[in-house]
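Render Rhomboid family intramembrane serine protease GlpG in 3D.
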Amino acid sequence: MSTVWTVALKLGVNHIRLLVQMTNKQQPHSIPAFAVAAFDNKRAALAIADYLSVQGISAETKSQDNETLVIVFNESQVPDARKIVESFIANPNDPKFLNASWQRNQTAAVDYQADNSALVSALKSTGWLTISLLVVIATLHLLMHLGAANTIWQALHFPYQLTQISLIELYRLWTPALLHADAPHLVFNLFWWWWLGKRIEANQSRWRLLNVTLLTGVLAHVCQYWVTGPNFVGLSGVVYGLFAYVWLYGRFSRLSDYQIPNGLAGLMVLWLAIGFSDVLWVSMANWAHLAGLLTGLALAFIDGYSLPKQTKSP
C-alpha cells in the first residue's frame, strides 16, 4: 500500500506544493521500480537526488506525467532513501540539501520557485567551469577584433617548433583552442562546448570536464601540428572529444543527460568525413577533429568500463 503526503511550503512570498508519493512495490504503467518520490517541482526532486548521491545512494530524476520522479537503482537502498525523503518533507530548507547540490557541482541554488524563462533555467543548470571558459573565449575573440589580434596570437599560438618548446610554454599545447578565426566558427564551438560541457560538469564533476577538455585538446593539437604545421585555431578538437565522450559514456551509464541520438552522432561523423574530402570553402583542422574524437572515445571507455555494476545500463 502506498502512502501520500501533500506538503505546502512557504518560501518568500510564494506558496509551492510538493506532491511526494512513496511506493513499496512497482506500480504498473505509473511509477517505475525503485521510485521513492514524485514531485510537482523539478528543483525539489533535484535536491533530493543530489543529497541521495552524496550519501552514496545512486539516484537520478525522471520526468513523467507532469511530475519529476526520484529513482534509486539499488533496491536495498530504498528504505534509506525513503527516510531521507521524509526528512526533506519535514525540513525542505535544511542547508544539507543545498550543500549536497554544491558538492555534486550543481551551480544552481536549490530554488523551489518556478524559473521565469528557459534562459534562466539553462544558466542555472550550467557549471562555473563551463561558463568561465565560454566567457574567456568570447572575450578573447572580441578583443582580437578590437585591435589586439597580434598580441593575443603571439601569447597563445601553438609552438612553431614543438621539439624546442620550453617547460614554461607547455600551455601552448592547448591554448589554440581559445582562438577562433570568425564568428560562425566561434558560435558553433561555443554552443557545443556549453551543451556538452554542462552535462559532464553536472553529472560527473568539473574536474572530469577539465581533464577531458585538456587531454582532448592537447592530443588534437599535437596531431594537427604533425600533419599540417602550427597554424591552426579553434575549440573544435575539444568539441569532438566531448561529443564522443558523452555519447559513449552514455552507452555505459544510466545518465539520461548523456543519451545522444545515434543519428546526431552520425551527423558529426559525416561532417568530419566531409572535412577530409576537402570540398568545403573553408580550411578545417580535420586531424585535430579526428584525434579529439578518438581521445574522447578512449576516455569514455575507460571511465564507463570502471563504473559500478549497478549504475551501468542493462
